[in-house]
Each structure stands twice: as structure tokens, then as C-alpha cells.
Amino acid sequence: MFERFTAGARAVVRDAVEHADRTGSDTVGEPELLLALLDRTGSPAAAALDALGARREPLAGELAANRRRAGISAADAVALAGLGIDVDEVVARVERAHGAGALADGGRRAGRGKRVRRAFAPEGKAVLERSLRIAVGRGDRHIGDEHLLLALTARHGPAGAVLAGHGVTFDAVVRVLEERRAGRAS
């Protein structure tokens, strides 16, 4: 599959591994792939994110907050609040007892500060596989960073939820990519 990835898509995957290293995550998942996409400039995914008004800092902040809450999204936290569960209070209590970031990655910090090979989490692998299916479905012969972005928005995972909260949905990304494609064709 990786032979079909463009240089830009391969760079996203490499950068996602580096994001996992920096955050101390044991695996590479959706959040790391999204952070790597947000770092891109001059690519189809970067253009789509820019056209949709997605900005790195707010998105990265929400991903960090979700990570701190053990993957519980802002929408999930609101739903739990409706049941009388204050997620921020739970996180605060756990962090008081076990230290800051105790819930991030289940409290594991293996490999922090040293270079280790990061495996892809199941949802990270699913994004890569979904990007292939999306590329094939669109009739594209390659897998570019735009296919990775589409794969992230195609389901309601941690990255997809954060993106959707900023208006970056699968349909919106498809629309922007089609507009760009039509603009290049004329």
C-alpha cells in the first residue's frame, strides 16, 4: 500500500510518528495523523483545511485536551455532564493523585525521552486503509495527504470529531477538493 503513497502522504506518516514521540504516546493514531496534516503547507490537504478555516492552534488544543481526558471528546464530556459526571473534575482528581497527564495513553510513558519505534494504533491503521479505499473510490492512482484528510473525516473518531466541530467534514472536504480539481481543469 505504501508504494501508492505520494511523497507528501509519506511525510505525513513520518511526521505523525514524530508527534507520537514528542507527546510520549506509545502508538500513532488519529490525533498524531491530524497534527501531522496540520503542519503541512502547499499540499491539497493544507489547501482544503485552509479553505475551510481550520487553524492549527485551536485544533491542536482540542486534541491535547482530548488526550488529557483519556480520549473523551468535548462532545462526550457534555453528554456525560448531562448524566451528572464532570469529566474535568474526574481528570483533576486523577491528576492530583497520579500526576499531570496520568490519563493520557492510559498513564503509560514508555519510551519518553528516548527514540523507540512507534506502532500504529488500530484506528491509525484504519485511517491508512480507509485512505486507500477513498483514493480507489475517487479513481485516483495515488494516495495523497488529501486522502488521509478524507479518511480522518469519514468517521467519528477522535480527529474526525475535532475536525467536525470546526466545520471540516467529509462532505466539506470533498467539495473543496472538487472545486480545486475543477479550477485546475479549466
TrEMBL record:
Taxonomic source organism: Streptomyces albospinus
Protein name: Peptidase
Record's keyword terms, sorted: Repeat
Gene3D superfamilies in the cross-refs: Clp, N-terminal domain
Endoplasmic reticulum keyword on record: no
InterPro entries noted in UniProt: Clp_N_dom_sf, Clp_R_N
Top-level taxon of origin: Bacteria
Phylogenetic classification of the source organism: Bacteria, Bacillati, Actinomycetota, Actinomycetes, Kitasatosporales
Residues in Clp R domain copies: 2-183
Repeat among keywords: yes
